[in-house]
Design a protein that fits this description.
Blueprint lengths: L1 H27 L2 H10 L3 H20 L3 H6 L4 E2 L23 E8 L2 E11 L2 E5 L5 H20 L7 H15 L3 H4 E10 H4 L1 E7 L2 H16 L4 E2 L2 E2 L5 H20 L11 H43 L9
Length: 321
């Protein structure tokens, strides 16, 4: 039994080592050569082994990150499977609201499979590749999107600047001789509305530049008042400040949804976006009231503890010598 387990582990190590060499070779190839190699030189099990290696490599990289860095890179990677659809993210399952995980996904509507596409995310931005009939083309797109993410992460300000994202995408696509419009299907911008709605909100864009503009505007509103830290209210949190911030975020969300947001031909009217937000607010109202009460109680305790600590410190110039 022990010998059998050892042999199994050895085979897995060999497959992983081979997949690593293949992945490095694919990265050095041009776009056309890579696509041809994946399609003509690799069988389905080998493609799955390649994606499994990519999943494993990303998990290993995350082990060396600090907790804060892990939070900013919490998008996972889905494994590939041709027999079990649960291993994929379906476009028809509600995943297009901007959540879900990264990886190779399948496009399904009413039980019909239309193709496969790559999806990756970073810093509340999610990139969706074009839908392809062939799985190999989606794997190629995923490799390119992974290169984009690595360049964003290695940039000076860790991807927090719109120029870093823009430059990373343009440099990778130019190296491959690809056009952004032909490569990217959608870019999604997400932001947290947990405190007010108990969920996150997302806006989809057809163009990267439109998404980056919205991403910048949303971050400016959020950064104008640092009210939350680690899922709790910060020292500057007040109910009034939170309401003011939500009004700004709410207005901006409606503006984006009814304006340049959504894909071509899928824009919605302001009143529809307003109605949806109002329904979510009503549904979450009781939970939000309890949450606000907890925030205030926690803040009162922090203030009381700070006052007690201040009173315990002796005055004067530090005592007698």
């Amino acid at each position: 039994m022990k010998a059998s387990c050892t042999a199994t582990r050895n085979r897995r190590c060999q497959r992983s080592s081979h997949a690593a060499r293949v992945y490095r070779c694919l990265q050095r190839m041009s776009s056309a050569a890579r696509q041809n190699a994946i399609r003509t030189c690799m069988k389905e099990p080998q493609r799955l082994a390649l994606e499994a290696y990519m999943v494993s490599a990303r998990k290993d990289a995350r082990k060396n990150l600090t907790p804060k860095a892990v939070l900013s890179r919490q998008q996972g990677v889905l494994a590939l499977s041709v027999s079990d659809g649960s291993h994929f993210a379906d476009a028809a399952s509600g995943d297009m609201h901007g959540g879900g995980r990264s990886g190779i996904c399948r496009s399904v509507a009413k039980g019909r499979l239309y193709g496969f596409y790559a999806k990756t995310g970073i810093m509340n931005l999610t990139f969706w590749g074009q839908i392809h009939r062939e799985l190999a083309d989606a794997i190629r797109d995923h490799i390119l999107l992974s290169k984009v993410l690595e360049r964003i992460r290695s940039s000076a300000s860790a991807g927090k600047s719109t120029s870093n994202v823009r430059d990373a995408m343009q440099s990778v696509l130019s190296e491959e001789g690809l056009d952004e419009g032909m490569f990217l299907r959608t870019v999604t911008v997400r932001f947290s509305a947990q405190h007010w709605l108990g969920r996150s909100l997302a806006v989809h864009f057809s163009k990267l530049e439109d998404a980056l503009s919205a991403w910048k505007r949303l971050r400016e509103v959020q950064d104008s008042a640092q009210l939350f830290a680690g899922g709790h209210g910060s020292a500057s949190y007040t109910f009034e400040a939170a309401q003011k911030q939500w009004c700004l975020l709410r207005q901006l969300f409606i503006e984006l949804q009814a304006g340049i947001g959504r894909r071509a031909g899928q824009r919605i009217m302001c009143k529809d976006a307003e109605s949806q937000l109002a329904a979510w607010e009503v549904a979450y109202n009781s939970t939000r009231a309890k949450k606000v009460a907890r925030f205030r109680l926690r803040q009162e305790r922090l203030l009381a503890a700070a006052a007690e600590e201040a009173s315990a410190v002796p005055g004067g110039g530090g005592g007698e010598l």
